Amino acid sequence: MGFSDATREKALEIIARYPADRSRSALLPLLHLVQSEEGSVSPAGVEFCAEMLGITKAQVGAVATFYTMYKRRPSGDWLVSVCTNTMCNVLGGQEIYDRLSEHLGVGHDETTADGTITFEHAECLAACDYGPVMTVNYEFFDQVDPDTAVHVVDQLRAGQRPQPTRGARLCTLKEMSLQLAGYAEPREEAMGDGPAGAPTLRGVRLAQDHGISVSGFDPDTPIKSSRGDAAPAATAAGLAANKPASDLKPAGDAPQPQKQALKEAK
Protein backbone atom coordinates (compact mmCIF):
# COMPACT_ATOMS: atom_id res chain seq x y z
CA MET A 1 0.00 0.00 0.00
CA GLY A 2 1.06 3.58 -0.47
CA PHE A 3 1.45 5.75 2.59
CA SER A 4 -0.35 9.07 2.92
CA ASP A 5 1.38 12.42 2.71
CA ALA A 6 0.46 12.97 6.37
CA THR A 7 2.33 9.80 7.33
CA ARG A 8 5.36 10.87 5.33
CA GLU A 9 5.33 14.24 7.08
CA LYS A 10 5.19 12.51 10.46
CA ALA A 11 8.06 10.25 9.39
CA LEU A 12 10.20 13.28 8.58
CA GLU A 13 9.29 14.82 11.94
CA ILE A 14 10.38 11.64 13.73
CA ILE A 15 13.68 11.46 11.84
CA ALA A 16 14.35 15.13 12.66
CA ARG A 17 14.34 14.27 16.38
CA TYR A 18 17.72 12.58 15.96
CA PRO A 19 21.16 13.90 14.91
CA ALA A 20 21.72 13.71 11.17
CA ASP A 21 24.35 10.97 11.50
CA ARG A 22 22.12 8.96 13.85
CA SER A 23 18.93 8.96 11.79
CA ARG A 24 18.79 5.17 11.94
CA SER A 25 17.79 5.54 15.59
CA ALA A 26 14.38 6.66 14.31
CA LEU A 27 13.59 3.14 13.08
CA LEU A 28 11.62 1.97 16.14
CA PRO A 29 9.17 4.90 16.18
CA LEU A 30 8.91 4.73 12.38
CA LEU A 31 7.80 1.11 12.63
CA HIS A 32 5.15 2.15 15.16
CA LEU A 33 4.09 4.90 12.77
CA VAL A 34 3.68 2.39 9.94
CA GLN A 35 1.66 0.13 12.23
CA SER A 36 -0.58 3.06 13.18
CA GLU A 37 -1.66 3.32 9.55
CA GLU A 38 -1.66 -0.33 8.46
CA GLY A 39 -2.48 -2.11 11.70
CA SER A 40 0.66 -4.20 11.17
CA VAL A 41 4.11 -3.88 9.62
CA SER A 42 3.69 -5.20 6.09
CA PRO A 43 6.41 -5.65 3.43
CA ALA A 44 5.31 -2.24 2.11
CA GLY A 45 5.82 -0.78 5.59
CA VAL A 46 9.31 -2.27 5.77
CA GLU A 47 10.11 -0.77 2.36
CA PHE A 48 8.75 2.61 3.47
CA CYS A 49 10.99 2.70 6.56
CA ALA A 50 14.02 1.63 4.53
CA GLU A 51 13.33 4.36 1.97
CA MET A 52 12.90 7.06 4.62
CA LEU A 53 16.12 6.12 6.43
CA GLY A 54 18.27 5.14 3.46
CA ILE A 55 18.93 1.63 4.77
CA THR A 56 18.13 -1.83 3.41
CA LYS A 57 14.86 -3.70 3.79
CA ALA A 58 16.84 -6.51 5.44
CA GLN A 59 18.03 -4.12 8.14
CA VAL A 60 14.48 -2.96 8.79
CA GLY A 61 13.12 -6.49 8.74
CA ALA A 62 15.70 -7.65 11.27
CA VAL A 63 14.35 -5.12 13.77
CA ALA A 64 10.67 -5.58 12.92
CA THR A 65 10.88 -9.35 13.45
CA PHE A 66 12.81 -9.04 16.73
CA TYR A 67 10.18 -7.12 18.73
CA THR A 68 6.80 -8.75 19.31
CA MET A 69 4.99 -5.39 19.49
CA TYR A 70 5.41 -5.11 15.73
CA LYS A 71 2.80 -7.32 14.10
CA ARG A 72 3.81 -8.83 10.77
CA ARG A 73 0.32 -9.95 9.85
CA PRO A 74 -2.94 -7.96 9.80
CA SER A 75 -4.19 -7.65 13.39
CA GLY A 76 -7.46 -6.75 15.04
CA ASP A 77 -8.19 -3.50 16.83
CA TRP A 78 -7.71 -5.29 20.14
CA LEU A 79 -4.69 -7.40 21.07
CA VAL A 80 -5.82 -9.65 23.95
CA SER A 81 -2.90 -11.21 25.82
CA VAL A 82 -3.25 -13.77 28.61
CA CYS A 83 -0.31 -14.47 30.89
CA THR A 84 0.43 -18.20 31.08
CA ASN A 85 3.76 -17.93 32.88
CA THR A 86 4.43 -19.56 36.25
CA MET A 87 2.66 -17.29 38.72
CA CYS A 88 -0.42 -16.57 36.63
CA ASN A 89 -0.56 -20.17 35.45
CA VAL A 90 -0.68 -21.48 39.02
CA LEU A 91 -3.53 -19.05 39.66
CA GLY A 92 -5.51 -20.15 36.60
CA GLY A 93 -3.93 -18.41 33.61
CA GLN A 94 -4.02 -21.48 31.36
CA GLU A 95 -7.71 -22.05 32.12
CA ILE A 96 -8.43 -18.43 31.14
CA TYR A 97 -6.45 -18.82 27.92
CA ASP A 98 -8.20 -22.08 27.03
CA ARG A 99 -11.66 -20.65 27.73
CA LEU A 100 -11.00 -17.55 25.59
CA SER A 101 -9.48 -19.61 22.80
CA GLU A 102 -12.60 -21.77 22.65
CA HIS A 103 -14.93 -18.77 22.97
CA LEU A 104 -13.19 -16.74 20.24
CA GLY A 105 -12.47 -19.70 17.98
CA VAL A 106 -8.79 -18.80 17.57
CA GLY A 107 -5.44 -19.85 18.96
CA HIS A 108 -2.18 -18.08 19.72
CA ASP A 109 -1.35 -15.18 17.39
CA GLU A 110 -4.59 -15.59 15.45
CA THR A 111 -7.31 -13.05 14.69
CA THR A 112 -11.05 -13.59 14.99
CA ALA A 113 -13.12 -13.95 11.82
CA ASP A 114 -14.69 -10.52 12.35
CA GLY A 115 -11.22 -8.95 12.53
CA THR A 116 -11.74 -7.33 15.94
CA ILE A 117 -9.48 -9.35 18.25
CA THR A 118 -6.00 -10.79 17.89
CA PHE A 119 -5.38 -13.35 20.63
CA GLU A 120 -2.11 -14.50 22.20
CA HIS A 121 -0.62 -16.07 25.28
CA ALA A 122 2.14 -14.07 26.95
CA GLU A 123 5.14 -15.47 28.79
CA CYS A 124 5.02 -12.62 31.32
CA LEU A 125 3.04 -9.40 31.67
CA ALA A 126 5.08 -8.09 34.63
CA ALA A 127 2.11 -8.09 36.99
CA CYS A 128 2.63 -11.12 39.22
CA ASP A 129 1.13 -9.25 42.18
CA TYR A 130 -2.19 -9.03 40.32
CA GLY A 131 -2.31 -12.50 38.80
CA PRO A 132 -3.93 -13.95 36.91
CA VAL A 133 -3.83 -11.05 34.47
CA MET A 134 -4.63 -10.35 30.88
CA THR A 135 -4.07 -7.20 28.87
CA VAL A 136 -5.91 -5.51 26.05
CA ASN A 137 -3.46 -3.51 23.94
CA TYR A 138 -1.10 -3.74 26.93
CA GLU A 139 -3.55 -2.23 29.43
CA PHE A 140 -4.18 -4.40 32.49
CA PHE A 141 -7.19 -6.39 33.56
CA ASP A 142 -6.17 -7.81 36.93
CA GLN A 143 -7.18 -10.92 38.84
CA VAL A 144 -9.46 -12.13 36.08
CA ASP A 145 -11.15 -15.50 35.82
CA PRO A 146 -12.57 -17.26 32.75
CA ASP A 147 -15.98 -15.62 33.08
CA THR A 148 -14.70 -12.04 33.51
CA ALA A 149 -12.25 -12.55 30.64
CA VAL A 150 -15.07 -13.67 28.34
CA HIS A 151 -17.13 -10.65 29.42
CA VAL A 152 -14.28 -8.29 28.48
CA VAL A 153 -13.83 -9.73 24.98
CA ASP A 154 -17.59 -9.73 24.40
CA GLN A 155 -17.64 -6.01 25.22
CA LEU A 156 -14.80 -5.41 22.77
CA ARG A 157 -16.57 -7.29 20.00
CA ALA A 158 -19.71 -5.27 20.69
CA GLY A 159 -17.83 -2.03 20.02
CA GLN A 160 -17.38 -1.04 23.68
CA ARG A 161 -14.20 -0.03 25.47
CA PRO A 162 -14.23 -1.63 28.94
CA GLN A 163 -12.30 0.18 31.65
CA PRO A 164 -8.97 -1.49 32.54
CA THR A 165 -8.33 -2.24 36.19
CA ARG A 166 -5.63 0.44 36.26
CA GLY A 167 -3.73 2.65 33.88
CA ALA A 168 -4.92 4.45 30.78
CA ARG A 169 -8.26 4.02 29.01
CA LEU A 170 -8.32 1.62 26.10
CA CYS A 171 -7.32 2.74 22.63
CA THR A 172 -7.13 0.67 19.45
CA LEU A 173 -3.92 -0.92 18.23
CA LYS A 174 -3.53 1.81 15.60
CA GLU A 175 -4.15 4.59 18.16
CA MET A 176 -1.67 2.99 20.54
CA SER A 177 0.95 2.66 17.80
CA LEU A 178 0.69 6.36 17.03
CA GLN A 179 1.36 7.15 20.69
CA LEU A 180 4.39 4.84 20.68
CA ALA A 181 5.64 6.71 17.61
CA GLY A 182 5.83 9.76 19.86
CA TYR A 183 2.53 11.54 19.28
CA ALA A 184 0.36 12.52 22.23
CA GLU A 185 -2.99 10.87 22.79
CA PRO A 186 -5.60 13.50 21.89
CA ARG A 187 -8.45 12.01 23.95
CA GLU A 188 -8.71 13.73 27.31
CA GLU A 189 -10.26 10.64 28.89
CA ALA A 190 -7.35 8.44 27.80
CA MET A 191 -4.90 9.49 30.48
CA GLY A 192 -3.90 7.14 33.30
CA ASP A 193 -6.29 6.81 36.22
CA GLY A 194 -5.50 6.32 39.88
CA PRO A 195 -2.40 5.43 41.92
CA ALA A 196 -0.63 2.11 42.30
CA GLY A 197 -2.87 -0.66 43.63
CA ALA A 198 -2.74 -2.36 47.03
CA PRO A 199 -0.71 -5.45 45.95
CA THR A 200 2.04 -3.24 44.50
CA LEU A 201 2.22 -1.22 47.71
CA ARG A 202 2.02 -4.21 50.06
CA GLY A 203 5.74 -4.15 50.91
CA VAL A 204 5.63 -0.44 51.69
CA ARG A 205 2.55 -0.89 53.88
CA LEU A 206 4.18 -3.74 55.82
CA ALA A 207 7.25 -1.60 56.44
CA GLN A 208 5.06 1.23 57.67
CA ASP A 209 3.02 -1.08 59.93
CA HIS A 210 6.17 -2.47 61.57
CA GLY A 211 8.07 0.80 61.75
CA ILE A 212 10.74 -0.27 59.28
CA SER A 213 12.47 2.52 57.39
CA VAL A 214 15.84 3.54 56.05
CA SER A 215 17.65 5.61 58.66
CA GLY A 216 17.63 9.29 57.75
CA PHE A 217 15.86 8.71 54.43
CA ASP A 218 14.03 11.74 53.05
CA PRO A 219 12.37 11.16 49.66
CA ASP A 220 12.45 14.91 48.98
CA THR A 221 16.23 15.14 49.28
CA PRO A 222 17.76 16.10 45.91
CA ILE A 223 20.46 13.85 44.52
CA LYS A 224 23.80 15.62 44.50
CA SER A 225 27.05 14.60 42.89
CA SER A 226 29.90 13.93 45.32
CA ARG A 227 32.51 13.97 42.57
CA GLY A 228 32.81 17.73 42.39
CA ASP A 229 34.75 19.14 39.45
CA ALA A 230 35.94 15.67 38.48
CA ALA A 231 32.53 14.75 37.06
CA PRO A 232 32.82 16.64 33.74
CA ALA A 233 36.31 15.28 33.17
CA ALA A 234 35.20 11.73 33.94
CA THR A 235 32.23 12.10 31.61
CA ALA A 236 34.44 13.39 28.83
CA ALA A 237 36.88 10.52 29.33
CA GLY A 238 34.02 8.02 29.22
CA LEU A 239 32.67 9.48 26.00
CA ALA A 240 36.09 9.43 24.40
CA ALA A 241 36.57 5.76 25.31
CA ASN A 242 33.10 4.73 24.17
CA LYS A 243 32.40 6.51 20.92
CA PRO A 244 28.97 5.63 19.48
CA ALA A 245 28.92 3.53 16.37
CA SER A 246 28.37 5.42 13.15
CA ASP A 247 25.39 4.70 10.93
CA LEU A 248 27.80 4.64 8.00
CA LYS A 249 29.03 1.13 8.80
CA PRO A 250 28.12 -1.69 11.21
CA ALA A 251 29.34 -1.41 14.77
CA GLY A 252 32.37 -3.48 15.65
CA ASP A 253 34.38 -2.98 12.47
CA ALA A 254 37.31 -1.51 14.37
CA PRO A 255 39.54 -4.03 16.21
CA GLN A 256 38.95 -4.26 19.94
CA PRO A 257 41.72 -2.62 22.04
CA GLN A 258 42.66 -5.90 23.76
CA LYS A 259 43.01 -7.79 20.49
CA GLN A 260 44.95 -4.94 18.93
CA ALA A 261 47.38 -4.86 21.86
CA LEU A 262 47.96 -8.61 21.63
CA LYS A 263 48.54 -8.35 17.90
CA GLU A 264 51.12 -5.59 18.35
CA ALA A 265 52.90 -7.53 21.10
CA LYS A 266 53.55 -10.55 18.84
Automatic annotation (TrEMBL):
- Any Pfam family hit: 2Fe-2S_thioredx
Q: Which UniProt keywords apply?
A: 2Fe-2S, Iron, Iron-sulfur, Metal-binding
Annotated InterPro entries: NuoE-like, NuoE_dom, NuoE_N, Thioredoxin-like_sf
- Its domain of life reads Bacteria
Q: Which PANTHER family match?
A: NADH DEHYDROGENASE [UBIQUINONE] FLAVOPROTEIN 2, MITOCHONDRIAL, NADH DEHYDROGENASE UBIQUINONE FLAVOPROTEIN 2, MITOCHONDRIAL
The family classification in the record reads:
Belongs to the complex I 24 kDa subunit family.
Protein name per the record: NADH-quinone oxidoreductase subunit E
What organism is recorded for this protein? Phytohabitans suffuscus
